[in-house]
Amino acid sequence: MADLKIDVLPMQGIPDGTIIKATGFIDTTTAPDIEKSIEQVFTQKKFKIAIDLSGVDFVSSAGWGVFVSEIRDIRENKGDLVLINMVPDVYDVYELMEFSAILKSFDSIDDCIKYFKA
Amino acid sequence: MNIKDIMAQLTSELKKDPLEKNAIVNNINSLIASYNTLVNSVKAKTETPFSSEIESLKKEISESEKKYKKKVIDLYTIFEIAQDLSSSLNVDNLINTIILTSLGHLLVENGSIFVFNEKTGKFVFKQAKGIKTGMEKIELDSQEEIIKFTISKTKPFLRTDFLTEKNNAQYHTLFSNLNCELVIPFRIKNKVNGILFLGPKPGNIPFSESNTEFLTALGNFAAIALENAKLYTDLNNKVRDLSALYNISKEINKSDDTNIVLDLMLETITTGFGVKKCSLILYDDLKNHYHIERSHNLEQAEAVRFLDMILSRKIENALDKNEPVFIKDDRIMKDHIFFSIPLIAGSKKVGLLNIYQFDDDIIIDDDIKQIFVIIASQMAPPIVLTFFLSKRETYKENPFDYIYNDIDTLITKSRESGISFILCRLKLIDKEIEFNKVKSIIEKIKTILQPTDSLIHSNFNELLLIFSVSTKEEVENLIRDFIQSMVQIEKIEPKIACYPDDGDNVNTLLKQLYNN
To answer: Does any CB of chain A come closer than 8 Å to the CB of residue B202?
Structure first.
């Protein structure tokens, strides 16, 4: 499996928001890297987090596990973790495994920003 | 009639003279009725008796497709995790992988893992996700009901399954703190080496049979991976200990200086092996007593008290048989142990390595005791060697210092009592003189001495004897016979000096003994 590249970017118009843009594969090897990025964002008290998956071709169960395990803490701090720009293969799994019951998804950053502003 | 015919007729009716409008309207109505009859007959043909069955089949196929796709994802996840668990030997990484995969695959918000510690016999908390911390101090003994229940199960079980049987407030609290809904044993052969406590699914949706099958497989892979990691860690520890022993041996055999060697030994065991309080005790075989040569973190009074313990017969008997003694009794020594390891070189009693306290994170088990027995076996020979080498050097530089006072004391006593004595020096000459040879000479000579005679000094080069009641001739005969019996050494040169005949002071006597 290829490595994972992670970029942490500010969310325009949302001062306590962050976009974590991932590129590559999120599997058992690279999932801890995403986890670490999310935890680093916590230390900056930013709890409105969007994971941009436009560059991610595959997310394994461990990757989904990272998102699911952080959600409670984030929501307790009045924030949320959302997924944006999923590619079709990733979205199919998201739908099939019914992750929408816990995690929201959006097709664009703008939609995500609208959600956080609301 | 078909629709085309109806439309053609309609058009023709509309072209007719409007004065015949009643006839036209009647005809149009008749055409509309024909049209409706036609439409109804077409509808009736498309709504077949099987359309609802077809819809139902389509739905079933769609559901099955979804189920099979999920199954494929299950299998892929199992394959991925099996691959990952079998390629990692780091316990923390393994546990992280297991928890994240479980949470992600089953859409569960929290999970925690306890792992079995063979040394303590308890399941200790290792890692959790999605719940607050504070679990670190939780330990579950093997004899606890929850553990016995888990070990009896080959598959995951619900919290309610356990609580129905053992409705105990303590366990309600445990499950509540862990926010646990499902318990998954990590089973390998007939034992359980880990437990995953998994939280509920969203909306408290029950775990399906497929979920349970997935978690059973996950638990089995996890057990194998943990076992492999444990074996790898044990092996690494053994290699580390052996390397440390090798390094100790290498370091302490580098130096000829007794003080440096003793300091190195103490530093190695205190910094490298977790010893907090100890002492190095040497045995003086001429005077038949122990003295404290080095201590670490001991008050003077403590050191003396511990030394007194050695003199108890039970302990001394064990030490004489080269058996380590281990006592842990808070009534005797609170918060301390008494772990005494004999230092023996060949058959020579060199001393004792006594350990009274280890660092808090050291578990004192048979492994650690065995390591120190091996360390002690490495320590004794260099102590003996450097001690003899230093005596040899000292005597070369100033051969008189060591024995000067002893002879001076003898002369004083002889003057007071009016009794003479004879000093005999045996110079040992052998290209391959070594400890065992000297030892055998000393042992042999002790057998020919009277109770009033004594060996007052020995080293690799010489022995110095005192004869108090024998005459010079008797001493010469005795020594000649002795030398003749000593075939294992190349040459022994005797020198005799009699007090007061050959001199009445130390210098004169020594000159007589050391003149070539």
So the answer is: yes
Whole-structure pTM over 0.80, yes or no?
no
Q: What are the tokens at B491?
A: 């040459």
CATH number at residue A39: 3.30.750.24
Q: Work out the minimum CA distance from B83 to partner chain A, whole angstroms.
A: 10
Q: What is the distance between the alpha carbons of residues B96 and A34, in angstroms, rounded to a whole number?
A: 13
Please give the C-alpha separations between residue B170 and each of B149, B174, B176, B178, B300, in angstroms, as whole numbers: 15, 6, 10, 13, 49
Measure the CA–CA gap between B516 and B513, rounded to whole angstroms: 8
Domain that holds residue A34: 4-113
Give residue-wise pLDDT tens across range B353-410. Answer: 888 888 877 777 777 888 888 888 888 888 877 776 665 555 444 445 557 777 888 8
Whether A58 maps to a domain, the answer reads: yes
So what's the ipTM on this one? 0.91
| Residue B49: pLDDT over 80 | no
Cβ(B102)–Cβ(B83) below 8 Å: no
Distance of CA B80 to the CA centre of its chain: 31
Question: Which A positions 25-54 lie with beta carbon below 8 A of chain B?
Answer: 27-29, 31-32, 35
Lowest mean pLDDT among A32-46, B316-330, B454-468: B316-330
